[in-house]
Design brief:
Helix content is about 55%, strand content about 10%. It is α/β, with parallel strands linked by helices and about 300 residues long. The strands form two sheets. Strands 2-3-4-1-5 form a five-stranded parallel β-sheet, with helices on both faces. Strands 6-7 form a two-stranded parallel ribbon.
């Protein structure tokens, strides 16, 4: 008699015939990041729409992979263009979070650099500097601000081209472990890409950040003060609106960044004003006095006198 062999049925490893995209979003908590972006940034509707589109693309790409549809790792390198203070760094951090949650990067950190962090000042200095930065950024996002300064054709002894060549190689060979975001003024970035077609061909997503309107900047001022536990009195809020209208037409305006600088100076004037009041015999500073920005704290700015 021979023993009969028992065949054990093997579990099927065939990919699923359908995937719940909403389940992927929920599991990764992507909605949480998108909602956070809405809370953090006033306005910027076109930017937020593009981020949602990219998130949708990433979810669909992940679903395709789960169903066994062969495809290359999507290129996720990006270019953020716009004036200073329009939220590019904040959006880069939220983008890194989305990439981490969906499994497109391992760590989800952001390494922010400029030309000085990548380009050396003598022969043999640039390659190690650039490679060290890339090593730090692996598994996350490398954010290069004012990226066009990497290329200086007017200087024959400039080493920026060496940094670009190293970046190009890593962007192609390690795109499953690193996302590079180039940022800067739109016109200068366009010139940069025309001079560096290899870099242009590796950028899959271009997002333009518009300037804030006067109304949005005033809301940003309200929000910033709230985070600092200050508030405007009604005349001060009107003075802030007037400040914004004047400051926007002066040189070196940097959107939300300029608003923060103005509020810092207003808080300094408020502190001096409150201190002078508190130095009077018997005067006790109230919570309201310590937290309220008045019109005089803003109207003392040189902006109202035609200066900065």
């Amino acid at each position: 008699m021979t023993d009969q062999q028992t065949t054990v049925p093997q579990e099927s490893t065939a990919p699923p015939s359908a995937v719940d995209l909403n389940a992927i979003l929920q599991e990764a908590n992507v909605f949480e990041v998108l909602d956070q972006l809405d809370r953090e940034l006033i306005g910027l509707a076109p930017v937020k729409r593009r981020i949602r589109e990219i998130a949708s693309f990433l979810v669909v790409s992940k679903a395709r992979a789960a169903m066994g549809i062969e495809a290359e790792t999507p290129s996720l390198h990006m270019c953020f263009t716009g004036n200073p203070g329009t939220g590019k760094t904040t959006v880069a951090m939220r983008m890194a979070d989305i990439l981490l949650r969906l499994g497109y990067v391992r760590k989800g950190h952001v390494v922010s650099v400029t030309r000085d962090d990548l380009v050396g000042q003598y022969i043999g200095h640039t390659a190690p500097k650039t490679k060290e930065i890339l090593k730090k950024a692996m598994g996350g996002v490398l954010f290069i601000d004012e990226a066009y300064y990497l290329y200086r054709p007017e200087n024959e002894r400039d080493y920026g081209q060496e940094a670009i060549e190293i970046l190009l190689q890593v962007m192609e060979n390690n795109r499953d472990d690193l996302v590079v975001i180039l940022a800067g003024y739109k016109d200068r970035m366009n010139t940069f890409f025309k001079s560096n077609p290899g870099m242009s061909s590796r950028i899959a997503h271009h997002i333009d950040f518009p300037d804030y309107t006067d109304e949005e900047l005033l809301l940003i001022a309200d929000k910033m003060l709230g985070h600092m536990h200050y508030s405007f009195d009604p005349p001060a809020r009107q003075a802030m609106a007037e400040y914004i209208a004047l400051r926007k037409n002066q040189p070196h305006f940097a959107n939300a960044r300029s608003i923060r600088n103005a509020l810092d100076r207003a808080r300094l004037r408020q502190a001096n004003r409150v201190f002078e009041m508190a130095s009077r015999p018997g005067h006790l500073a109230s919570k309201e006095e310590l937290s309220l920005i008045s019109a005089q704290d803003l109207l003392a700015s040189r902006v109202f006198k035609g200066g900065l």
